[in-house]
Specification:
Helices cover 36% and strands 18% of the residues. It is an alpha/beta fold. Strands 14-15-16-13-12-17-18 form a seven-stranded mixed beta sheet, with helices on both faces. Strands 9-8-7-10-11-19 form a six-stranded mixed beta sheet, with helices on both faces. The structure holds 1,4-dihydronicotinamide adenine dinucleotide. 1,4-dihydronicotinamide adenine dinucleotide (NAI) binds at residues 167-171, 194, 196-197, 226-227, 230-231, 234, 245-247, 250, 253-254, 268-271, 302, 405, 407, 433, 473, 478. The site of 1,4-dihydronicotinamide adenine dinucleotide has 29 residues, from helix 8 and helix 9.
Length: 508
């Protein structure tokens, strides 16, 4: 009997905070959810807002990873032979279904991830837009014709890589699965995706949607698990490329393992990005930018501008306004429309963030607001991983909170005097994912953008990442790009064909 898609099951349809229990298998290959034979290594996955068990994660071992990759490979053989127009048609249908089911997918994402519904809806909108964008590009993929002497010529073909593995982080589960699969599929590849073990639920919904849209069985597969399953993907000889989103230490391991098989790698890693606010800025916009650059997804965003450099003359006004607005952020049930901050991903992650705040105080920072565990009034949320968003003043460049990626709602504010000084301090980090500058001086804005060592620089805004704009890191924040036209280069390879129209001129 055909499986009923997850989103149509009654428990998914009526899901609200504290009610969803997922019993259906979350691994997916060969066009269907797969129940693993051996569930002995299964681990509970908790709902961040309640601390309740949401599902049990059954990790894939060698045999299952191999099955998923074989299934991807057979789909690749068919999919790669389709024209770009044919691939686009399937992708556009997938985008349409996602758009139609946007609120349902967003609700499940909230329950699994803990972010607020308003953010999850934006993430799902990003997802269908990304698939639409790459569907539009699929028919345009083409090579070049190069005229040679004597009527001979060469041409290039932009060809897919084969089976691409995607490994995702927990903070944008559905969106990351799409950011990797949309360009990969547009170029003619097949994908095996491993979500974070903390957020296993929505990737399989994406798999079901691709199938419903007409993708061949095996084109997009999901293998669940943690480091071990990820390792199996990186080592598998039939995987042509690994696209990884996660922390720097794991990214290094992924690169090392992939190097053994000379696999292509894209690394979307962490950051400790600078946001520079000059005294000639529009202060209200700068404050809004600092909040958007620090508190989305409970601060668990790779490109967050967590080192906020403020020119000394406007520091008092900036702090007053930023603290007032931070205190007004409503923390609570992420499925409530009014909530603006939900729960952190896990209890250990919450403890880690609170420890960063404690250490910051010990090193001399001043907590202007927040930085404490938060227990909402609603009894069902008592076991959730909530904390109050935090602003730290009196920060110095050598403090731990300024140097390390906290991955929680903690903003460190630092004074500066001159442009030259702030650029030097902003760049004094091994990371280079993003950066931002607020100023009304147009020449200064572009000069600062040029001199910041980061893959993205936002001028007079922060954390704006539309699908058509490339995104990725400098330095230890990784390499390769996601989003935008350039990403097709990371999911395809160029074949050169040389055609002789005359006789072979042999030296022998
Ligand atoms: N640059 C970007 O686009 C983004 C970067 N990130 C970064 O991700 C990090 C937070 O995400 P986490 O999920 O905590 O990262 P993580 O590095 O702990 O895990 C990421 C993924 O790697 C897998 N993994 C762990 N060990 C592995 C191994 N040895 N081999 C293969 N796979 C392995 C995990 O199971 C998970 O799926 C932060 O540093 C954040 O900045 C997050 C989102 C976007």
């Amino acid at each position: 009997m055909a499986q009923q898609p997850l989103l149509e099951l009654p428990e998914f349809k009526n899901a609200s905070t504290g009610t969803l229990v997922v019993k259906e298998p979350l691994n997916y290959w060969g066009g269907a959810r797969v129940q693993l034979k051996d569930a002995k290594n299964s681990e509970p996955v908790y709902e961040p807002a309640t601390g309740r068990v949401l599902c049990n994660l059954v990790p894939c071992g060698q045999e299952e990873v191999d099955q998923a990759i074989q299934s991807a490979h057979s789909a690749y053989l068919k999919w790669s032979k389709l024209s770009g127009m044919e691939r686009a048609r399937v992708m556009l249908e997938a985008a349409r279904i996602i758009r139609e089911r946007r609120d349902d997918i967003a609700r499940v994402e909230v329950i699994n991830n803990g972010k607020t519904i308003i953010e999850a809806q934006a993430d799902i909108d990003f997802a269908w837009q990304s698939i639409e964008f790459y569907a539009g590009i699929a028919p345009t993929l083409a090579g070049q014709h190069i005229q040679l002497p004597g009527g001979s010529f060469a041409y290039t073909r932009r060809e897919p890589l084969g089976v691409c593995a995607g490994i995702g982080a927990f903070n944008y589960p559905f969106q990351i699965a799409v950011c990797k699969s949309a360009p990969a599929l547009a170029c003619g590849n097949a994908v095996v995706f491993k979500p974070s073990p903390f957020t296993p639920v929505t990737a399989v919904i994406l798999a079901e949607i691709y199938k419903q849209a007409g993708a061949p069985d095996g084109l997009f597969n999901v293998v669940q698990g943690g480091a071990e399953t990820g390792t199996l993907l990186c080592h598998h000889p039939m995987v042509a490329k690994v696209s990884f989103t996660g922390s720097v230490p794991t990214g290094k391991k992924v690169m090392e393992m992939s190097a053994k098989g000379v696999k292509q790698v894209t690394l979307e890693l962490g950051g400790k990005s600078p946001l520079i606010i000059f005294k000639d800025c529009d202060l209200e916009n700068a404050v809004k930018g600092a909040l958007m650059g620090n508190f989305l997804t409970q601060g668990q965003v790779c490109c967050n501008g967590t080192r906020v450099f403020v020119q000394r003359e406007i520091m008092p006004q900036f702090l007053e306004e930023v603290v007032k607005r931070t205190k007004a952020i409503s923390v609570g049930d992420p499925l409530q429309a009014g909530a603006r901050m939900g729960a952190l991903i896990t209890r250990p992650q919450l403890d880690k963030v609170l420890e960063y705040v404690r250490k910051a105080k010990e090193q001399g920072a001043k907590v202007l607001c927040g930085g404490e565990p938060f227990v909402p009034d609603d009894p069902k949320l008592k076991g959730g991983n909530f904390m109050s968003p935090c602003v730290l003043d009196n920060c110095k460049d050598d403090m731990t909170c300024v140097k390390e990626e906290i991955f929680g709602p903690v903003m460190s504010v630092l004074p500066f005097d001159t442009e030259e000084e702030v650029l030097q301090r902003a760049n004094n980090t091994t990371y280079g994912l993003a950066s931002g500058v607020f100023t009304r001086d147009i020449a200064r804005a572009h000069r600062v953008a040029e001199n910041l060592q980061a893959g993205t620089c936002y001028i007079n805004n922060y954390n704006v990442s539309p699908v058509e704009v490339p995104f990725g890191g400098y330095k230890m924040s990784g390499f390769g790009r996601e989003n935008g036209l350039v990403t097709v280069e990371y999911y395809s390879q160029l074949k050169t064909v040389v055609v002789e129209m005359g006789n072979v001129e042999s030296l022998f």
